[in-house]
Amino acid sequence: MAVGILGGYPARAARPVVDAFAALGLHSTFYARVLLHVPTAMRRYWRHVIRHVSEISFGSASLLAGGGTIGVVFAMSAVASTQIGLEGYRGLDLIGLSPMTGLMSALVNTREIAPVVASIALAAKVGTGFTAQLGAMRISDEIDALETMAVPSLPFLVSTRMAAAFISVIPLYLVGLFASYAATNLAVVNIKGQSSGTYDYYFHLVLTPTDVGYSLLKAVIFAMIITLVHCGYGYYAGGGPEGVGKAAGRALRTSIVAVTVLDVVLTLAFWGPRPTLPGLGT
Fold it and tell me: pLDDT tens digits, residue range 130-144?
């Protein structure tokens, strides 16, 4: 009997590892299928893509009761960048480098803060909504009903959302980037009292179109990852309403971790391990 118990222990111990690899394979193939069907979704279901773009950007109700993402991205970016301006000025002023606050704003907001903040807002506002919508459709057999009616559920439900997220993230991110720049300028010039000429000189000295382009590319990649992760968890949700809630929580954790890890990888890929400062020759 003891031999039987011990003999079954390795199988039980390996079960979580096997399940993790099975889930990884399931989601990986799901992501590939979603991306492959995006052109089909754009061509056949473009009306649904437009509707999703409207819901993502502006919502269908007031801001506090299910409004769009544009206000959330603007507010979160402004608050985060205000703190960058206030604390950055304070820290640089301690070593006599307060005029460099404009330089810090151009680098930190563009390369790191704005893409990450916009992605977190997208995951919390849009991603969880996708998980809940698809999860509710799964547990109520609506997805199976679509398949029964010969409507391919993956392009119709997921690839349309993927295309809408790709279209929406560009203007949404540019709004957030503008809010970041404006909030840091307000904090440094109007609250801390630094000369606007000094701030603008160092700000424009290091801000380049290349940095803005890389920053926008970061935001687009983050949006794709967030949409794929949240739609995957929603599409394969099970276990009733409780299971949908758990899927939304797992998707949010997974997407935020993926964004933070990918942010480090993309920063190293775009600017290298020893980034240079444009306009300063370093």
Answer: 999 999 999 998 888
